[in-house]
């Protein structure tokens, strides 16, 4: 089975943001690639049960999609996709715009803001159905597709992503795997400097294990 066929589905890459009502409505969010327009005024987005953003949306009853472009800052996906809002303020240092009480990423092509209208539960994910309350364009730039993220950016999916598939080394020789995000480093990692970090989740060399 060639799972790369799934990359051809028309996914985008988004920052899903909301507010943490238990911590003075501070902004939080995560990366999602499974979002779609269900009707002219309804958006569906799938968020893993383990994501802190999931429980925050359930409490706040609202979320926003920041639609990422091909030239988005390289730190956005590692921070929002491979770190937890339970532990850090993901929006620290990120330029945002406030729309209907939610932070949207200024370095995105546009945004869609929704109030939660219904919730569907699966074994691993919650599908939030949101009524659109506002939307707008921020800049003229090609949007980043899921396929572009893999083919050009050489990116990986977070373990909590709906499209996550466990990857293993398939080539001969040394290889190391990041235990945080699953990134595969092919080669001799010991030759990298001590301050080397994973190109996806920005974690130190010490989190890698040899395959």
Descriptive account of the structure:
The protein has 211 residues and is mainly beta. It is 10% helix and 36% strand. It folds into two domains: 11-151, Electron Transport, Fmn-binding Protein, Chain A (Pnp Oxidase, Chain A); 175-210, Rubrerythrin, domain 2. Residues 168-172 have low confidence and may be disordered. Strands 2-1-5-8-9-4-3 form a seven-stranded antiparallel β-sheet. A three-stranded antiparallel β-sheet has the order 11-10-12, with no helix packed on it. It has a two-stranded antiparallel sheet with strand order 6-7. It has helices at 52-60, 76-82, 146-151, and strands at residues 14-20, 26-32, 35-39, 42-48, 62-67, 96-99, 102-105, 110-121, 125-137, 175-178, 184-186, 208-210. The longest helix is centred in the N-terminal third of the chain and has 9 residues, at 52-60. It has three helices and twelve strands; from the N terminus they run ββββαβαββββαβββ.
Summarize model confidence as the mean pLDDT.
Answer: 86
CATH topology of the largest domain: Pnp Oxidase, Chain A
Order of helices and strands: EEEEHEHEEEEHEEE
Number of strands: 12
Q: Tell me the number of structural domains.
A: 2
The helix content is 10-25%
Low-confidence stretches: 168-172
Largest β-sheet summary = 7 strands, antiparallel
Overall CATH architecture of the largest domain: Roll
